[in-house]
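S.,

Sequence below, as promised.
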Amino acid sequence: MAVDTVTPGQFRLNADFRVAVIGGCGDIGAEISRIFLDLGAHVTATGVDAAAVGGSALEPHERLALAVLDVTNNQQVTAFAGSFAQIDAVVNCAGIVRRDAEFDINVFQQVLDVNLTGTFRVCNAFRAALARRSGSIVNIASMNAFAALPRIPAYCASKGGVVMLTKSLALAWAADGIRVNAVAPGYIETSLNAAGRSDAAHYRHIAERTAFGRWGQPAEVAGAVAFLCMPASSYVTGTVIAADGGFLAG
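The prediction came back faster than expected:
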């Protein structure tokens, strides 16, 4: 069967493309928001509260809107999704980690409520609007969905859940024209791991485990997210792209 030639237009977004980056005021989220702005999209980036939004590193832009959204709040999520007259892509990158504290059942449940259930809340709330535009969902998973760490059981479990949620929704919503994929970052330099990176020996050990011999940067996750929302990836759904510098390949 003949396959159409890939054209440059497949790697562009429509001029009226609209994306919601949930957690877009954070480190990786901000870079995802920036790349969509660079591609000409209209972006709404969220933070969990006013402090998160006010502390965002995102620069003001005519196509950028900032909003407060707590992904554990059903009413907030429903109202937020309902405020969009049009939506072409939703990126779920709101997440938390609570090292060592996750063995407490309340903390464990809190991490799952944000990272896993929160991702599902957002996906479900946007389903109808995305179906009208044959839109895309990109969930941010983690290398720790595949390689566990002992101090963060809830985080590992939640990200493993995000991977399987992504695959399940991809199958369930394909008939609606919605593609659902995920990106799994590896060791990326963010505020979440700043404390760990202060240990020079730990920092070097991780860097040496990667194929590139270094930690990644938030911007190096953003490109994979953008690709998964482009026409060039129209036959891609239910997949997980690892942006881990080759860590899992070793």
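The helical segments are 27-38, 50-54, 74-82, 105-133, 153-173, 194-197, 200-209, 219-227.

Coffee later?
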